[in-house]
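Collaborator request, handled under Task 6.
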Amino acid sequence: MKKDNASESAQPLLRPDEDNDAGPSEPPPPTFEESAGHIVVDFDKIEVAPQGGEVPPEFEPYNAEHWVSRNGEIISHDPHLNEDGEALYRFLLSQSQTPPTFFIHCRGTHVESRTRHVTRTDAQGRRRTEEEHYSETVTDFDFTIEHAVPHYGSRTQWTIGDEEPTFRGHMHREVGPPGQTIEAKSDWNKRFDEWREERRMRGLPPWVSSQGSYQGAQVFGGNAQVQPIRRADVLKSSLTLRQWADDYCQSKKIFKEFLYEKVIWGWDLNLLENAIRRTISATHYKGDNVHVCFKSNLSKVIVRPNTRLSRAISNPWLKFLLIITLIYPCIWLFQRFHSRGGGRWTVGGGAYALKRWILVPDYAEPDTLPEIHETPEGPRILIGVREGEWFKRWEGTIRRAVMARKVDKNAMNEPDDVNWSAQGLDGYQQRS
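Structure tokens returned to the collaborator:
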């Protein structure tokens, strides 16, 4: 009797290098068509959705134990998330409902040569004073601007394609479909990392991959044309996120780890960085080094086993103690060379657009709609803020912060030229 193809695809991924005495999670995972549902993304007139995909049904999220580390990672050692793929999947979906926070960090420094007098004692006990020259880095300005990611209509579930190097249950990156993966070579990883950084700075979504196959000579070429966004398939993996969750829970590895990444996209960060640097230069700042970077907080959700050693590795102080006592090097070797050692899963996540154009609804009342913009593709509604609008609002604040040598660890949320006390004055706000 022939087996049904759908039932075969629903089985969790079995690995030959592990003991697979445990069966699938109860109840058994649904088929691809039942579980591939993710948020649907509209790109102009084309609706991008997974094959057979539907919007996920409403559910009661599992309130798993989790905490936020110092570097902004959401970490959980909840035992249920390591045993039940459905619970892990729903936990990831519930975490994806909270977008990460986007920061713009500006820092300027210069190096000063200074002189000091030090007293030294020679072998005969005689003391003498010498002049010593040294260099010191002085911070001229250091400030951060926080930008809130829009909640409405910005979240998209995505999975990484089989042809892209990533961790699929081992301690090395792999490429290929499930069951036929091969270890990615170092030059493949390097080219892919370069493309991923280029993709981030260009504001492209994480499911856009460069042309070429991992088996070809033009692997992830830096000058390769990328796929148009309106043709992109946001779910590129042969397995759904739900099936990857089952694969993780089925694994018997002691130091396994599942990473769900929240990626921010939509702004051309190259152009924005150049605009910020030009504004800093316009203040006649003559420092040696100007640093402008874009980072996000609460952008990684990490699930690890509920063991003492695994919890110790998640704690920076305990991990440092394991390093100086030479215990961690032994753990590191065990993770990488033992079949039951370590394994990582970095197969997908959520994408959050800083700006997004959507079609104007035909049924909506004109007075209830936000501002409509005319684009080459027709009238569109803007969700979020364009990078040019953001920069125009913050340009004066950035200039004044540099000139005032502002050094502040707390992020700014509003421009400094907003006078909240005057908002209530009659006639202060200009009428439209």
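The cover message to the collaborator said: "The chain has a mean pLDDT of 80. The chain is about 25% helix and 30% strand. Please let us know whether this matches your experimental observations."
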